[in-house]
């Protein structure tokens, strides 16, 4: 079975055809348990997410703020393994038929083996990987195997990225471009700010045909609608994780993320 990069591209194009942004949700695998994490991912799809990023928990997630770090710590203490991440992708994809990516730092893949990881992710129906700390100039091995297995390679750009660097990143990536809305780590914020819109404009100015999706800071429907006004996709992570952390029990957490997805799905449609 090859990966689902085409499904990812079709999903983003379908949202654009509807005159709206795609809603992309992030949740870490293994949080609060492996089965519980699978329930949560299914719930955000049921609520209205178009695409889900499944986080591979890491002991030093440099891009992630305290909320996701807390969830990663819970998952790691629970013994989550890469096999559990692959299982989460498989069950979420089989239940929804929608694109599921893995967001991971490079070290776990490097240790696991690039060929093994890409083959298993594709076989599970995964659409690709977001690799926030893999430099483009060191990504040839990954991209070779990802392309072989039909997986997207999503790179992250930031407001600090120079125009030449943006061009290099967009030329090497596939699926979409992840635009970090501001400098810093993930987390909900009162305002997403104008930096994000400027970064989207600069990224598109490279001539890339890839959709540009914005993450870091979006936590409610109003912010989702704001970002949907200029981005091809709206990425929400910490707000989902916080709902799970704050819930009195697992069932309440699953319902809370389902409701948040529904609210955000309305938000990305307000610009339609």
What does the model show?
The protein has helices spanning 5-17, 34-47, 66-77, 82-96, 106-112, 114-123, 140-148, 163-172, 194-204, 221-228, 238-246, 250-269, and strands spanning 22-28, 51-55, 100-103, 128-130, 152-154, 156-157, 177-180, 212-215, 233-236. It is of the alpha/beta class. The protein has a nine-stranded parallel β-sheet with strand order 5-4-3-2-1-9-8-7-6. Helix 2 (34-47) runs parallel beside helix 4 (82-96) and helix 10 (221-228) packs parallel to helix 12. The chain is globular, with a radius of gyration of 17 Å. The N and C termini lie far apart (35 Å). Mean pLDDT is 92; it is low at 183-189.
Summarize the structure.
The protein has 272 residues and is α/β, with parallel strands linked by helices. It is globular.
Strand order of the largest sheet: 5-4-3-2-1-9-8-7-6
Helix content, binned percent: 40-55%
Summarize the helix and strand pattern as letters.
Answer: HEHEHHEHHEHEEHEHEHEHH
- Estimate the strand proportion: 5-15%
State the shape: globular
Number of helices: 12
Please give the CATH class: Alpha Beta
Write out the CATH superfamily name: Aldolase class I
Distance between the termini: 35 Å
At CATH level 2, the architecture is Alpha-Beta Barrel
Spans of at least 5 consecutive residues with low confidence: 183-189
Number of domains: 1
Instruction: Report the sheet with the most strands, covering strand number, pairing sense and barrel closure.
Output: 9 strands, parallel
Under CATH, the topology can be stated as TIM Barrel
Rounded to the nearest angstrom, the radius of gyration is 17 Å
Q: What class do helices, strands and sheet pairing give?
A: alpha/beta
| Overall average residue pLDDT | 92
Number of strands: 9
